[in-house]
Amino acid sequence: MIQFQYRLSVPCTLNEEMNANMRQNGWASVLIRWYNQAKRDLPWRRTRDPYAVWISEIMLQQTRVEAVIAYYRRFLHAFPTVRALADAPEQAVLKAWEGLGYYSRARNLHQAAKIVSGSLSGLFPASYAELRKLPGIGDYTAGAIASIAFGEAVPAIDGNVKRVASRLFGIRENVNRPAVIREIRDTLTGAIPEGKASEFNQALMELGATVCIPRAPRCEACPLRLLCDAYAAGDAEALPMTEPKKPPRTVDVAVCLMTFQHTILLFKRKERLLHNLYVFGLSEELTDPQSALDYWAERGLSLRFLADLGGARHVFTHRIWEMRILHFELLKDPDSAFLREHDALLADSAQLKALPLPTAMKAAKQAALTILESD
User: Across the chain, what does the average pLDDT equal?
Assistant: First the structure.
């Protein structure tokens, strides 16, 4: 088990009874008291409904709290129950998710909702082990739902919690190693006060999100600083230790706005990246107008180049799209065989607004709407 290092810079006058109590996992009670006084008022903290907790936890993955709040409210308004989500068309779910990114989260939500609504008769799994069986629910999310909605004494270990644990316990090795994660999990499990699993996990998350932050941690505001190994050692900003990530690969992409009368050609993505979302015509590494013309001519489209509408950039987890937005006119209506083969359609401005497009297409979509609505 991980042990406190106790490299304490504690004044001699510190109450010894309080210090001893904190060393015996009293730190959890101190943390929870701080949380109850300092926590942010967030909409998902006003409910224990496992469905609502689940939605919030999935949305909060890889996304800032400030961005999630409005999406969370709109999503629950559109799909107020797990059955409503299960019964919705996938395109409606993706449209409601539009702008949040990482769309596999929305597809997994939809798939899991179908399982809960169908084979589980609408009853959400009430334990960590059963939650883990649903698509899109990993160790962290299962721990968060099980503890917050059902009070199960399991930790919820995300990036914030790993950072807090690495600093508090003085872990100076890769926190993503399975053996280290197991030690953190065992230590936190043993620290959960009886009946306080929800508050304990949320307190750790809140501390990591607002005080024990990655850069320039606010140590003087931390309720656990007197027991924090990194605070005593003065190396909090150097923790946690992780393996360096590979830099994302940059890809040049032509985004081809191909208009025909008052419509524009859209394609439903078949690739894993942005799967089932609608995009404009894309050609990688062929970003000059003539290369794009040749690319689409090989696929049976006759085009006339009209304008270069400028650039846009989108950063994915493992790649960066450097996009050039090009406007072409279709010289004739694409035939039905082409539309079927490429899962494509000609959309007017109303359809373009209604269909789910990824954030990567934001600048191109605005340019397309300007074109369609100016005719």
Answer: 91
